[in-house]
Amino acid sequence: MTDRPPHMHADFDTDVAVIGYGPSGLAASLKLAHHGIRVMAFEKERSIYPRARAVTVNDWTMRCFQSLGLDEALAKTMDPTAALRWVTYDRQELMRVDFPPSKFGRHPRSYAIYQPAMEEVLRSAGERLAPALSVHYGTEVVNLKQDHEGAELEVRDLASGQTRHIRARYVLACDGGSSATRERLGIRLLGETGETQWVVIDARVKRWWPQRHILTFWSDPHRPVVDIALAQGNHRWEFPLGAHESVADFDTHEKLWPLLRSLGVSPDDIEIHQHAFYKHHVRHAQTWRSGRVFLLGDAAHLMPPWAGAGMQSGIRDAFNIGWKLVEVLQGRLPEALLDSYETERAPNVELMTQAAVQLGRIIRREITPPAPDSGAPPIEPPNRRDPALDAGWVRGPIGGTSVIGKMLPQPDVADARGRLCLLDEVLGSGFALLGDGIHPAQSLSADEKAGWDRLGARYLTVLSPTDQGGGGEDVIDLEGGLLAWMREAGVRVLALRPDRFVAATDLHGLAVPDC
After folding, report:
1. pLDDT above 70: percentage of residues in the chain
2. What is the set of domains in the chain, with CATH numbers?
3. What sign has the CA pseudo-torsion 362, 365, 366, 372?
4. Share of the chain above pLDDT 90, in %
């Protein structure tokens, strides 16, 4: 880890203050502290929230955690998701989606998780990052002011009632859908909240039942249900309450059994251990930034659960703003880079939100998915789509056959000394340029190379297993998929951002993108 940057004003207590230490706050704190940025995180609760709110992560999210060396530890707490299916109460299957192999690393396309176990791994990782990361549990941020250099937080210890003031260069608000930070900043939350109340039932499995491992949506206009196997022997159902029903009708575990029995689930199968009520939201903050404060996760956007993307979107927010704050605070890129945070993340969040809305319509049987033999394109869950940007910190056109703004595949490779590993392990944690059979610097002007050198970029030559290595920064593409991906796009050299999205190619200029 690095020391405080020399331009850091002496009266700052920390580089970044993180408000809220749930999944978004954890991811942001870990990303920043991993790169030597000083972080202070403030969390009202002392213990991990016991209810498993999120249910899934995919290969994009796992690649983010791979960059911190945490993916394998997290995977030990998870179970691969076999498939999704939509069925009626009379057991007619309306649609089924199997997951193809991932292009982005060692993990399957989708995992079922048990959120408390996942957060335990992340919190333990945070403890190992001290003193760069200091976490203050049982502490509430009660006021926030900012100027052109930084922000001042007034924080209160909930046990003693004592307050103190913390000064930070930047603030990340990760304090959830009812974000007090967002309210203090006067940022409006746009959109709507559904009228229907849902009950979430969490249980521990006592015995197996048919197809338990398939994530099932019971599709019905009156009582659509989410039926999902969580990791570590846990299971969840989400039922909507009817217009004639209230929370009081399901306020004990005994009153929940008629709902579960309608799906064929009995006390012989499970033990209920908790339940809760909630409503669906389709809402987003009017802006994700106010001065030196950024909104992440539910503080910035809320979506229905059908696409399994709510928590993951917050984690991706964290890694996006995280690498940019690293570059700005360590003096390699100007502060204007931070303007690309919402530009890049908001379209993806909107895509996930609208996909969740559409999937919800199928579950409620408002629309019928096309039959497999109809010739119509299938409705595809968004987590099967490859990550891509709509706009942002890139140079050149986005979309179509262009690889600019797309995430680079991560195959198994060998390095110059014959070590077999995943591509990211050769690339390192920062910027990198790859050349198809050539050293990337050969395609750069002196000014272009100077720009990437200032960012500490690495230059690597991609070779096939039949090529003779140069003995330097070589990447051996063992199965040929990486070279095929580049050649299909007509690219000889490409430049990668720290998050593995392509920033530029030789087709449209290899200068460092403008901020």
Report:
1. 95
2. 14-76+114-190+282-360 (3.50.50.60), 198-279 (3.30.70), 388-505 (3.40.30.10)
3. positive
4. 84
